[in-house]
Amino acid sequence: MSDNNPSLIRLDPTVPIPASQRSRRRPRRRPRSVSGPIFRPNLAARKRLDALFYPLTVLATLFGLAILVWLLWSVFREGVPRLSWQFLTSFPSRRPARAGILSPLVGSLWLMGLTGAIAFPLGVAAALYLEEYAPKNRLTRFIEINIANLAGVPSIIYGLLGLELFVRFLFPLTNGRTILAGGLTMSLLVMPVIIIATREALKAVPDSLRQAGLALGATKWEVIRDHVLPMAMPGILTGAILALSRAIGETAPLITIGALTYIAYLPPVSLEALRTPFTVLPIQIFNWVSRPQAGFHVNAAAGIIVLLAVLFVMNSVAIILRNRYRRRYE
Amino acid sequence: MSLSEMGWTGQTRAEMAARLRRKHRKEQALRTLFGGAALISILTTVGIIAVLLFETLSFFQEVSLWDFLTSTQWTPLFTEKHFGILVLASATFLTTAIALALALPVGLLAAIYLSEYASPRARAFLKPGLEILAGIPTVVYGYFALLTVTPMLKALFPGMATFNALSAGLVMGVMIIPTVASISEDAIHAVPRSLREGAYALGATRWEVIRGVVVPAALSGIAAAFILGVSRAVGETMIMAIAAGQNPRLTLNPLVPIETMTAFIVQVSLGDTPTGSLAYRTIFAVGMSLFLITLSLNVVSDWIVRRYREQYE
């Protein structure tokens, strides 16, 4: 090794480099990968590049948030003046100023309640089976892969399934394009999400707890009912609420099964309601956005605020639940 | 403490055995019940495939597969019917490409910031903030694309139509940013510290460590994030139905109205289509194409993630 080679790293920084030996030319190209010469003597240029990259990543992170703020601002600026008691308590109308959001709001609440009532017990039961009971065999593995894949199926495909299965095939039960058909379709849609969230919550319960229960002679179900489920419940509820908030924002599958866009009455407060036609907030918003008149666009913005408010409440509950019980896990 | 307080019930051996048998039976029944619930997920998949297959097969009894795959016209509601899925697929491809052109770089850079630069406090605030984007209903994005973004873009491109692929695609890209960011971040997070420290010890700057070590090591995870983003974009419906238009045409021009596969299904569903008609079957044939595309994308992405996990564990 010769000391005259300028590309070598000098081990003793106190010895000044003679001017004749200082690196005058920059490397012809920058390294492409780890295998390239990653260590280059031109420290100033490298630091400059480094300094440029950092703000770029910050900018990218803030970009999404900026768009979020912009979106909310444009919706609120347009919709807030339209919000009123009249808007919340009127039925849809041909005249934008008289139209309201009552029947879609009630429809959304019905649908959410029904979806929760169907998907929550089924999802938790399925997760309990996979996490606590299922043997580690091919069938279990297949079910797991299947659930992961179902979570990735576009929602509109569930709409096609619901259209054929619940609206057409099970017509005697559902009476066609009704709340029941919508709720069943939505249940299938959110079940994978609930199953996945519940399994995560069950996994977080320490195994020692189960073993202690079993060692005292409790049956598996007794251990699950008295110890595992209560401890996992906050996590399960958080997942379920998030799944339901996905359901409440879904539009496409409900359009596909043929939910109406104009409902000027409320479903009766009885089980018969399940067999009546319905509409939901996102469908009403879609309907208003699609019209050319500006008055309906204002209604759409106001409707979006109502929808976001419902989502906000649900997510707040989920966050409160999670924070309140987080300490128990740790 | 008396015996009864300790749980002594004075049962005979036979009574206890009977109680145990009851418990056992209950245990078996619950196990079957829970297993049944787990089977619903399989039934859902079977249902989806059966329904799509059944209607698609009857669709192809009236329409030739050749026309479906090669025709360059999509006119199912005209007298002279053509069913060129390429027309709808090209629109889906165009909007997806626009969305990913935005979401991939932004999502990846955000992931790099969150995992490599951000302080724990900034992260705790920014990450959930970014994830809000994924929780906003798509109909809201549709509103935003049509009534806020499009008017602004019209100032930039004076010839742009009210319904167009550009605005819808860009807004969909914003929606996908959290998906890309969060999966990329997981992948970047999984790169062992020792690799980074090795590079730092050699005197590499942060940028050099990220570009030369971290990103290449996490590349398969980033690829999976990309594919999952594509899969979400392909299946996205409401933004397309609201902001991209309902004019099926074979074009890659982002400034004119088009119709994606999902938007077509919405268009037919909104009309009063009698069940069992050809138009009714058409949406299932389109749905089948959609299902096959997203399924294969999800499988590929899952496969990549699995492969990549093996490297460090």
Main beta sheet of chain B: strand number and arrangement?
none
What would you call the structural class of chain B? mainly alpha
Order of helices and strands of chain B: HHHHHHHHHHHH
What's the CATH C level of chain A? Answer: Mainly Alpha
Name of the CATH homologous superfamily of chain A: MetI-like
Secondary structure category of chain A:
mainly alpha
Specify the number of helices of chain B. 12
Question: What is the CATH homology-level superfamily of the largest domain in chain B?
Answer: MetI-like
Q: Between the first and last Cα atoms of chain A, what is the distance in angstroms?
A: 57 Å
In short:
The complex is a heterodimer of chains A (about 325) and B (about 325). Chain A is mostly helical.
What are the salient characteristics of this protein?
heterodimer; A: 330 residues; MetI-like fold; 12 helices; 0% strand; B: 313 residues; mainly alpha; 2 domains
How does this structure look, described?
The complex is a heterodimer of chains A (330) and B (313). Chain A has helices at 43-79, 85-89, 102-133, 138-151, 155-169, 171-174, 179-203, 207-215, 220-249, 252-256, 281-289, 294-329. Chain A is an all-alpha fold. The longest helix of chain A is centred in the first third of the chain and has 37 residues, at 43-79. Chain B is an all-alpha fold. Chain B has 2 domains: 13-62; 70-312, MetI-like (MetI-like fold). Chain B has 12 helices and no strands. Chain B has helices at 13-62, 65-70, 85-117, 120-135, 138-156, 165-189, 193-201, 206-217, 219-235, 238-244, 261-270, 278-312. The mean pLDDT of chain B is 89. At the A-B interface, helix 1, helix 3, helix 4, helix 5 and helix 7 of A face helix 1, helix 3, helix 4, helix 5 and helix 6 of B.
